Amino acid sequence: MRTSAFLAAAFAVTISAVQAAAQQQQQSVLTWHGDAGRGGNFVVPALTWQSAASVAPDGAFDARVDGHLYAQPLYWMDPATHRALLLTASQSNVVQAFDAQSGKQVWRRSVGRPVPRAALPCGNINPLGITGTPVIDPATQAIYFDAAVDQAGAPRHQIFGLSLKDGSILQGFPVDVGRALASTGKRFDPPTQNQRTALTLLDGTIYAGYSGHFGDCGEYHGFVVGVPLHDPGRVSSFETRARGGGIWAPGGLPVVGHDMVFATGNTFGAQVWSDGEAVFRVGADLHRSDDKRDFFAPADWRSMDARDEDLGGSNPLPLDVGSQALILALGKDRNAYLLDRNNLGGIGGQLAVETVARYPIRTSPAAYPLGNDTMVAFEGPGSRCPAGGRGGDLTVLKITANSPPAMSTAWCGAVNGEGSPIVTTTDGHSDPIVWMLGAEGDNRLHAFRGDTGAPLYTSAPLTGLRHFQTLIATQDRLYVGADDRVYAFRIK
Questions:
Q1: pLDDT of 353-408, one tens digit each?
Q2: Closest C-alpha to 447, from 438, 431, 439, 436
Q3: Rounded CA gap, 107 and 96, in Å?
Q4: Cβ-contact 321, 283 below 8 angstroms
């Protein structure tokens, strides 16, 4: 009886420890928009419609970033020490870990000289280092990212893995992307390729999407490169058949089950469709399927190519609307496309399409449930703001289950800028609040009620915001990454 009681107690302690570790992992922000599906719905029980007005800058928080910050900060709650770290990765190729309460630096790692703009055939980032948001793997307790590194005047793309404990480089890393792909018979030209998208972790492999530079110069292609964590030298890849077709969206490669979806941009000189202007679904092996269930492209892809009005600037967003499993794709053609997640439909195979914006849609959307509908917030002035609505660079769509599913503009928010919105809810659906940075515009942090669009909060102007930037939410703070620093806002 004593042995049974002892075993039962030990089992209870083990279960409690596992549950505690799982809860801490849920509190962590390990990837872009906080989840592998890129939905951007952060659960913060204390952040209600009423309490949003009392959010305030934390003047005591002092996290000084080395360089320009395009990548979203990440947040790691260590299950052993219960210490929370805020992690940044900059264009100076510097990764830093800060104490999430004070902003005091815990460790710093430089991974090589960034690439000066003069060493590239085109582009608008100077210097070019880490652009895409890293990803954290809780199993290996490491952070992974792509860095553009200048090696004796030759730009290279290298994928790194660093220990969260001290920033040390993991065994087997970095992986030189160009050399690794050459060993598989693929040509990858580092000076003309760029890595802007958030990395994705799926089934023990890190995936990075690649595009070109601003200006569309050179022989770049849309690439996805997979690096197994336990065998980094054995890479896999997807490559667009035509030149171009870049994967540009900061949200990158959302996960659906054991697959990923991503969108490509315009191609050059394609007389037949060759993977541009498309949404793809691929498995962990990155195998391209010619089955129309696994890809979608608008019927007017050729004219979209000619006008540079592509789908690759914003990541596809998996949605569950009622019993319907959907994907929403937003384009620089100002359109929203709803796709059947189980059958993407091939060329012209969308379930519904609607012009929803007055200008090209870029950055990344966020989604949240509202009653029986699903709401999607995106950066861009809406083409159909409701009467009396507040015009600006934030638009929220309402998607209703139907056959076909229906889209309408629910409300628009008065934001001037180009940040990527997120949502906070108290339990996944209650008290939805849409947050967005007016990056490279009014440079303020804005909050709106998710049901009506009523303004809840506007910050004082912030400095150093880049249009790639989005914020993150934790249980007691909001964090905003900027050039040379991270802002923290207390949730009271």
A1: 999 999 999 899 999 999 999 999 999 999 988 654 566 899 999 999 999 999 99
A2: 436
A3: 6
A4: no
436 within 8 A of 419, measured Cβ to Cβ: yes
SS3 state of residue 19: helix
The upper half-sphere exposure of residue 351, i.e. CA atoms within 13 Å in the direction of its Cβ, equals 23
How far from 456 is each of 7, 336, 435, 445, CA to CA, in Å? Answer: 52, 27, 10, 11
Q: Which CATH class is domain 26-490?
A: mainly beta
Using CA atoms, how far residue 233 sits from 112, 180, 181, in Å, is 20, 7, 10
Could you tell me the strand order of the sheet in which 94-99 lies? Answer: 74-77, 84-89, 94-99, 105-110
Express each pLDDT in 272-307 by its tens digit. Answer: 999 999 999 999 999 999 999 999 999 999 999 999
- How many Cα atoms are found within 13 Å in the side-chain-facing hemisphere of 416? 4
Cis peptide before 404 (omega within 30 of 0): yes
Whether the predicted model's global pTM rises above the 0.90 cut: yes
**Coil, strand, or helix at residue 205?**
strand
Q: Is the dihedral of CA 413, 416, 421, 426 positive or negative?
A: negative
Closest residue by Cα to residue 215 from 182, 187, 248, 237: 248
Structure tokens at 44: 């913060």
- What radius of gyration do the chain's Cα atoms show? 22
CA distances from 177 to 172, 174, 182, 197, 234 (A): 13, 9, 8, 15, 11
